[in-house]
User: Fold this.
Amino acid sequence: MIPENSTSAAARSSGAFGPSGAGRRPVVGVSLKLYFGLAATRKWLADVAALQGALAGLPRPVDLFVLPAFPALADARELLAGTGVAYGAQDVHWAETGAWTGEVSAGMLAETGARYVEVGHAERRRHFGETDATVAAKTGAATRAGLVPVICAGERHDDGLARAVEETLIQVRAALGGAEPGSEVIIAYEPVWAIGAREPAPAQHVRAVASAIGTCLRDHDVRGRVIYGGTAGPGTFARLSGSVDGLFLGRLAHDTAQLRQVLDEVAAATTPAPLPLRP
Assistant:
């Protein structure tokens, strides 16, 4: 049974939201799913840590977070320390404690130093029967523990824009209903039909759905950013610039050279134009 939402501790501030008018800081996330073993994950995390110099040299700061499997969280804490790269988990349970064999609580994730946690991915819905109520409960648990939930939402089939907006907003509203007031969230718009496809969803389609999500965020007492996932890679953000705050990457980011290329593009596309010189 999924517990009702509580209104306890507020979420931590990440500094991702600057002064009024400064704009939201762009963000890039990577989920490793179950593609790597522990040794391969350690090597990849070390390669990501080596990007520290590149991150420091970006024309505008970009938040980067990575989501390895649970057993690698200690490795992420060790290998990413001092790099500015945040890490988190791919799932969380809604209960803080109790007889929930095999589950991991948000509080335990916070103790590992995790900052982000993914909730509501289409694979969790399809293979593990997660519902909007489940996702809302997990969102509540994450925000109460001070974690930033990366809430995945998106339509299952390519049935047109109106259906995409309707189906996606049902998921987003349900999840945000579980969030603590004032908490920070990320909405990862991932049209299911575009995950693992040859091309991302059309830019015009993504812009329209992202705009609807942005309006939905403003209707809730949260601080939110919207990112796009679904065969995202180099060139994707440039086509979406101005409509999303970043990207959610999958297998493309296994190659950290491509990950760096995406980070460069996101930073360049969101760098404010220089002010004209006064005569």
Q: What stands out?
A: The beta strands are 27-31, 63-67, 86-89, 116-119, 148-153, 183-189, 222-229, 246-249. Confidence is low (pLDDT under 50) at residues 1-15, 17-22, 273-279.
